[in-house]
């Protein structure tokens, strides 16, 4: 089964400047997570407790630019991040960041594909 892109991330150098830009130009809702190293959630449409409430859009985030996060990336939903990272490596990709909890919602990890692109993985917590 194809795995869906469920989130995007855009790096910033100045969180306030980037937030103002996306809020003013695209009317996105932006919420800084102070406990997440300055991560800013970006709501691009109507949301409920579990994310978008209408088909056809995804939400994203703004994160501080770093050596591993220099360009926009997409985040792909998987059932098992650890298994996905093993498959990435078997296919020639490289782990960047191991599985890490994201609040009580799930886990995230990052890898580079065979072309050097940074891609995120997302596993939703089911219980």
UniProtKB/TrEMBL annotation:
InterPro entries: Anthracycline_SecMetBiosynth, Glyas_Bleomycin-R_OHBP_Dase, Glyas_Fos-R_dOase_dom, VOC_core
SUPFAM superfamilies hit by this protein: Glyoxalase/Bleomycin resistance protein/Dihydroxybiphenyl dioxygenase (SSF54593)
One Pfam family it belongs to: Glyoxalase
Domain spans labelled VOC: 4-124
TM annotation in the entry: none
Gene3D superfamilies, per the entry: 2,3-Dihydroxybiphenyl 1,2-Dioxygenase, domain 1
Region of interest: Disordered: 44-69
The protein's name: Glyoxalase
Organism in which the protein naturally occurs: Luteimicrobium album
